[in-house]
Amino acid sequence: MRCLAGIVIVHAARAVLSCIVITLATSAPIRADPAPRLRLTDPRLRLAVAAGRQQSPLFRTLTNQLEATDVVVYVQCARLPGHLAGDLSFMTAAAGVRYVLVRIGWDLPLPRKIAILGHELQHALEVARSPDIVSARTMAAAYERFGFVKSRGPERTEFDTLAAVDAGATIWRELAEWDDGE
Ligand SMILES: [Zn+2]
User: Fold this and answer.
1) What is the mean pLDDT of residues 10-39?
2) Which of 59, 91, 121, 163 has the smallest number of CB atoms closer than 10 Å to its CB?
3) What is the pTM of this model?
4) What is the pLDDT of residues 93-125, one digit of tens each?
5) How far apart are CA 90 and CA 118, in angstroms?
């Protein structure tokens, strides 16, 4: 494994991660974020979070629950390969705080961005509820236990959970229902 980002959780397809996640782990948070545990590295993501919290009760619940954890989630828009919509990777643990990186496909329509982000926030809560996760390796071990493998390769193993899939689907439905009510 070349760097901490060797093991990730994703929706689909393979991706190559670089060690830039280590740099992001040490970058300063954006102070204006309403939810300090959720740190948006791209101002365009503010719209997704604001709309998600407004229109989806589950998205709002997930972001609220994150605030009570020791997990900080950096979120960035990224050009993801193939049909990969988003992923989460473990960055580092320091001073009682665990840091993960969520990447969301930059070109997704807004409702899709929100649903994918909600899916990844469910993963962040799974990390939060698993104190044994303190590295990419221990995260992989935990997901071997409570998740399922989507693909296994020499440099990268991809996991998912039914809870995250369900969260994304529920948020997607709530967004649609909110639109219908307008
Ligand atoms: Zn997932």
Assistant:
1) 48
2) 163
3) 0.81
4) 999 999 999 999 999 999 999 999 999 999 999
5) 17
As for how many domains the chain has, the answer is: 1
Ligand 1 centroid vs 160 CA: distance in angstroms?
4
Give whole-number Cα distances, 152 to 65, 77, 130, 134, 157, in Å. 31, 25, 22, 21, 4
DSSP codes joined into one string, 95-156: TTEEEEEEEEETTS-HHHHHHHHHHHHHHHHHHHT-TT--SHHHHHHHHHHHSEEEEE-SS-
CA of 182 to the centre of ligand 1 (A): 30
Residue 75 bridge partners (DSSP): 40, 102
**Centroid of ligand 1 to alpha carbon of 8 (angstroms):** 9
The amino acid at residue 158 is E
The per-residue pLDDT for range 141-182, each reduced to its tens digit, is 999 999 999 888 888 888 999 999 999 999 999 999 997 555
CB atoms within 10 A of CB 129: 13
Please state the length of the chain. 182
Note down the domain range covering 136.
4-180
Percent share of the chain, pLDDT over 70: 79
Distance 159 CA to ligand 1 centre (A): 7
